[in-house]
Amino acid sequence: MEQLKKLLFSGLKKKLIILFLLMALVPLMLASYFSISTMQETIKNNFIATSSKEMKKASDTLNLYFEEVAKNSKFLASRPVVKKADETITTYINKRTKEKLKMTPLKNGEVEAEIYKFYEDFAKTHKNVAYVYLGTKDGGYVQWPRGVNSAEYDPRERPFYKQAINSQEEVVLTAPYHAQLDNNIIVSTVTKIKNNDGEVIGVQGLDVSLDGLTNMIKNIQIGEEGFLILATEQGKILAHPQNPKFNFQTIDKLNIKALNNLKNISSDNFFAEMNKQDYLFNIYTDQETNWKFISVIPKEELTAKTETLYWKIIITTLFVALAVILIAIYIGDLVSTPIINATNFAQEISNNNLEVEDLKIESRDEIGDLGQALNNMRNNLRDYLDEVKAAYQQLGAYTEEISQLNKKLEYQAEHDSLTELPNRSKFMKELEAELDEEKEGVVMLLDLDNFKEINDTLGHIYGDRLLKRLGARLLKLSNEEFFVARYGGDEFLFLLKNRTDLESIETQINKIRNSLNKAFLIKNNELEIDFSIGITLYPNDAYSPNQLITNADAAMYRAKENTKKDYFYYNIKLIEKIEERKRIKKILEKALNNNGFELKYQPQIDLDNGQAEYLEALIRLKEYDISPGKFIPIAENSGLIIEIGRWVTKRVIGKISTDLAKGKAPKKIAINFSVHQLEDHNYIKFLKETLQENNVAPELIEIEITESILIKKEEEAVKFLKQLKDLGIKLALDDFGTGYSSLNYLNYIPLDKVKLDKSLNDKFLEAKASAMGNLIKLFHSFNLPVVAEGIEDKEQYQRLQEKGCDYIQGYLFSRPQKWEKIKEITTINFIEKINEE
């Protein structure tokens, strides 16, 4: 009987152990298994979702970046200095040499130097630009930064040129390619350059290097150790931050079979081996460029967060299994309630209810240990789940950080980095919104008149500090109705909304004036600025944002010419006048390069002997009927007057030299000198060398100056004129009586002659001849001979002769003549001829 009881008891224990294993361990193990599996899948999916979101943002950021580069490319192509690109641009097509050729755009001068300087200034404010360049239809090429060029380089055969010329798109983004000049790998944004007649004269390009893309992609963090790979649709790697040697290699170099057919993959994720390590790959395709963003995350990073928990759950499960077995051994001696409670507790845990109350088992045997183990297991699981939640929170923090980065990028895309003002792009959006809603308002363009002088004298660092302080003052004027932005360089844009009345406009101009009139104190230097403002109204003047800015720009330059006001309103005639000036400037440039100028000479008749004592050299255009009164101011404003002045000087001295060589007695010749020629600091040296080379005495040359030279640059002018006198050159004061007359300078300027303007003769010779006589006596008291200009009738001549005038110049005696004709008539006694007539 005892043996049967023991057997039954033993069998019961086994059944209880099996029962406990089934009731406790199986649910626990299943719960552990499903928890681990679910956790791994959840983490994987979260990583995929997060990386997809990051790649989408990276794609948007990259598109925004290339959109800005495209806008800059269009902006460069639209600038007047770029539109001037012509056949004078250096070409390397026929330069056959084994050596590299140095690009020297600044030394080449003229249009090429202007364009290069413009590119150089642009690059200073756009740090991510690798190259700025243009190629012309003639094969010319200008590039910033300058360097060395390959022989026989033809930009028209390069990918950037062909794609831009053949594309219907306004701006073309090229596929990556090797730059021929330095073999760097670049992506080009190019657009056509059209002249003012709409003719395509070349292409304008901006380049971004693959190194720049790599740095941009490198800054995007995927998890802790993940990174992004950027590739083209055809599978060409553009950026591989972890291994840049793969840049511009095909994707199959990574030896990842799933990526070999990248062109047909829009989005996908999979595990694959790379460099003997498993990674999770996730692919996203940019809708604009079809470029592929590939996030690469080590598989270890996905599993690291679950491995520790996995093993602890296994160990805990084994421990619980042991505890259950021990409890089952003694179950026959104990009540079943603790086991049932433990089973229920384990079931709650298996159902993911970790907030269940502690299992309370008072016994200090195996059942009590089981209860404590289950409590510990519950606590450990809760701790581990807290760690997982913390990991999710960290992921959320990463997401927020990237969101803040995107906001920062958006801010930088619409604001100027130096002044913190909104930039041109932001201004254009504001203006476009106004025009789309058919509102009315005012666009103003402000340009500093003396900023270049500040930069040249104090340096660009001071110039930048000045712009930053100035921007801070202007920002204070900005409100909902008055939008302020930096256009570029020393130019600023203003948008006055819902106002077109003159009172409102004048009020805003006064606010700008009051803000900027106070001097800027920078490093103990008080800097005062002058400015000019161009004003245009919308929609009255134009419906296009670009045209409105062009209008304001034209009006601003008109304001610069007006010495009485610092602002000017746009009108259509102003544009026509500017276009006419551009046309004449091109004519002058062509004339300088193609012998398009000629000199005519008008005699100054000595009233004592009737002979032509002096000849005045007067410049004319051979093929165009444009008066000097029209083209000389344009030459002055464009800087061409310096080269023209030297051409006149050299031609006059050459004529005198020819007479001397033939044994003839040369006539003294007068040359007109512009105030802008004071910028030609080597003119004295040039004049001296030209006289010496031609063996011409300085006293045969007379230089005619106007009072404007003395008024605008008195100290510099006095020094210059004394150098001329020291050289032996004669000096004459031209156009006396045109509005600036002041006799104070007669005390310190070494003049040899005074020329009375035609307007003065016309005004006083008839009604107030005595006043003219007194004026002539005054100059005689300074020992200065007097020349009357523009004399056309005999009565004027007779009155001037009566009043003691020394010389007469005008149509009465002779119109300006070519050199051959003037040599024929200089032997005539003009007074006898007039008297006979």
TrEMBL record:
Give the protein name, as stated in the record: Diguanylate cyclase (GGDEF)-like protein
Q: Which GO terms describe its biological process?
A: signal transduction
Question: What InterPro entries does this protein's entry cite?
Answer: Cyclic-di-GMP_PDE-like, dCache_1, EAL_dom, EAL_sf, GGDEF_dom, HAMP_dom, Nucleotide_cyclase, Rev_trsase/Diguanyl_cyclase
Pfam families annotated for this entry? dCache_1 (PF02743), EAL (PF00563), GGDEF (PF00990), HAMP (PF00672)
Its chief place of residence is: membrane
User: What is the topology of this protein in the membrane according to its UniProt annotation?
Assistant: Multi-pass membrane protein
Q: List, for all copies, the residue spans of the domain called GGDEF.
A: 439-572
Q: Which residues form a coiled coil?
A: 367-448
Localization: Cell membrane
Query: Membrane-spanning regions, if any?
Result: 16-36, 309-331
Kindly state one GO CC term assigned in the UniProt record: plasma membrane
Q: Where is the EAL domain?
A: 581-830
